């Protein structure tokens, strides 16, 4: 009965136990962090078996299938990396507490529900569970004004987006009499796109989801929150929640709204192109590396939406493949940012401070350059392949102009990635960075750099098989 949701049970129960441990025993920070990582790894193994083979469960409100299992695997591993990355970044006796990993565990439970949801109410419950933990994480540094501001902005705009989403859900329920994806799809088959109520519900639903994936024009929170939140939290925001929201949007569009494809495709194409070009152009004048990576995430969301606009199983597979590679590139880039510290240990985020990094820290500069070129989609790095997949899916779906526009957007966006590399390799060297031992973080950077290097093409076969199996459940 509970086997299909074993990963969620492990994380939810584990989070409650760790919260109680932290409340009754002092000096449990390191234990809670290690236990949280162990729980996330155990949840990954719990995905083997009923968690990916049971299909629709509990009356069809959740799905334990290969699509949700793939998303959960990426989410759990991303959350584990975010916990590990925080180990040497937060102040030891003040901020490096047990609350951080507990919040990430509860957020991971919410994201797991999101990618499994096959009902609009379940969708909302999972999304809000994830969001409530995220609001606290954004303002985690209580003594930092930027962090408090980021948390407040995220909360206010998130509440607005939740209201829009709920209004869309209520409209769909009112005009279909059901909240299940199957029932909503059946209503669209009966009514077509002639029902104004259904179309308004579709628009509001997609608007609420667009906020969660930070797609234009609902991207306004992203640069400020990414800059103000603690860097390990920003790394988490840019990876796991993004994956959950994108896969949730994919399931909603290709299952619940499948009969109205031509209606939502127009919205997705607009959001895709707007995200690609705004994410590319707005990043040109950025001087803060975290804000630059925020616009990079908006830009990459646009490319993922090209695969979603293509629709069908090929489009779903391209989305899954893209988000898997994107998470590795983004986490690698943020792990490099976490190592940017002055000699006294103070972290910095200014792009100008990277000047001459290739001379003072050649290994770190090389890794960051690999991630920048891969995010730009420049061959022969592995980041080129998922972009090629979404363009191919769009062309096969007859969306040739969209693919051409996406290629042009890739060229435009390459400028600011190359700008970072130029600063590191060709500008006059600034003061040397501080050196601090962080063997686990360095090992993670090395693994991520190898994956997105040309050696990553060896993963095309196995990753392609995994994503194809995951996309095969989309009807």
From TrEMBL:
It comes from the Bacteria. One of its GO terms (biological process) is ATP synthesis coupled electron transport. It is a multi-pass membrane protein. Its EC number is 7.1.1.-. Its main location: membrane. The keyword Cytoplasm does not apply. Keywords: Cell membrane, Membrane, NAD, Oxidoreductase, Quinone, Translocase, Transmembrane, Transmembrane helix, Transport, Ubiquinone. One of its GO terms (molecular function) is quinone binding. Residues 117-412 form the NADH:quinone oxidoreductase/Mrp antiporter transmembrane domain. It is an enzyme of class 7 (translocase). It is found in: Cell membrane; Endomembrane system; Membrane. It catalyses: a quinone + NADH + 5 H(+)(in) = a quinol + NAD(+) + 4 H(+)(out). GO terms for cellular component: endomembrane system; plasma membrane. The chain crosses the membrane at residues 6-24, 31-49, 69-90, 97-115, 152-173, 193-211, 267-286, 292-312, 319-340, 364-385, 397-418, 438-460. It holds the Pfam family Proton_antipo_M. NDH-1 shuttles electrons from NADH, via FMN and iron-sulfur (Fe-S) centers, to quinones in the respiratory chain. The immediate electron acceptor for the enzyme in this species is believed to be ubiquinone. Couples the redox reaction to proton translocation (for every two electrons transferred, four hydrogen ions are translocated across the cytoplasmic membrane), and thus conserves the redox energy in a proton gradient. HAMAP family: NDH1_NuoN_1 (MF_00445). Belongs to the complex I subunit 2 family. NDH-1 is composed of 14 different subunits. Subunits NuoA, H, J, K, L, M, N constitute the membrane sector of the complex. This is NADH-quinone oxidoreductase subunit N. It comes from Sphingomonas ginkgonis.
């Amino acid at each position: 009965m509970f086997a299909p949701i074993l990963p969620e049970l492990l994380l939810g129960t584990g989070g409650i136990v760790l919260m109680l441990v932290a409340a009754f025993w002092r000096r449990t920070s390191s234990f809670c962090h290690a236990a949280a990582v162990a729980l996330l790894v155990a949840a990954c193994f719990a995905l083997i078996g009923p968690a990916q083979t049971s299909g629709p469960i509990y009356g069809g409100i959740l799905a334990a299938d290969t699509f949700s299992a793939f998303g959960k695997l990426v989410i759990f591993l991303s959350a584990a990396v975010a916990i590990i990355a925080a180990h040497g970044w937060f102040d030891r006796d003040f901020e490096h507490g047990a609350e951080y990993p507990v919040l990430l565990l509860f957020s991971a439970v919410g994201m797991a529900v999101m990618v499994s949801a096959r009902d609009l109410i379940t969708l909302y419950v999972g999304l809000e569970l994830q969001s409530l933990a995220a609001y606290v994480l954004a303002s985690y540094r209580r003594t930092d004004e930027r962090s408090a501001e980021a948390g407040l902005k995220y909360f206010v705009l998130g509440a607005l987006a939740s209201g829009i989403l709920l209004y869309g859900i209520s409209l769909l329920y009112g005009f279909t009499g059901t909240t299940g994806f199957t029932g909503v799809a059946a209503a669209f088959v009966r009514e077509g796109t002639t029902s104004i109520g259904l179309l308004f519900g579709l628009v509001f639903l997609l608007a609420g989801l667009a906020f969660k994936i930070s797609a234009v024009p609902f991207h306004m929170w992203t640069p400020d929150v990414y800059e103000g939140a603690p860097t390990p939290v920003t790394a988490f925001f840019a990876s796991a929640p993004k994956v959950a929201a994108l896969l949730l949007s994919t399931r909603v569009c290709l299952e619940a709204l499948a009969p109205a494809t031509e209606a939502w495709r127009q919205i997705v194409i607009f959001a895709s192109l707007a995200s690609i070009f705004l994410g590319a152009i707005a990043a040109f004048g950025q001087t803060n590396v975290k804000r630059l990576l925020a616009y990079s995430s908006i830009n990459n969301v646009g490319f993922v939406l090209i695969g979603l606009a293509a629709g069908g199983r090929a489009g779903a597979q391209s989305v899954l493949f893209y988000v898997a590679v994107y998470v590795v590139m983004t986490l690698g880039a943020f792990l490099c940012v976490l190592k940017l510290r002055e000699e006294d240990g103070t972290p910095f985020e200014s792009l100008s401070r990277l000047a001459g990094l290739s001379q003072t820290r050649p290994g770190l500069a090389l890794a960051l350059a690999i991630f920048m070129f891969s995010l730009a989609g420049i061959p022969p790095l592995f980041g080129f392949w998922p972009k090629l997949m979404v363009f191919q899916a769009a062309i096969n779906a007859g969306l040739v102009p969209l693919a051409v526009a996406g290629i042009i957007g890739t060229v435009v966006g390459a400028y600011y990635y190359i700008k970072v590399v130029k600063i590191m390799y060709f500008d006059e060297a600034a003061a040397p960075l501080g050196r601090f031992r962080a063997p686990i973080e360095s090992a993670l950077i090395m693994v991520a750099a190898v994956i997105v290097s040309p050696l990553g093409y060896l993963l095309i076969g196995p990753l392609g098989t995994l994503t194809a199996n995951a996309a095969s459940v989309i009807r």
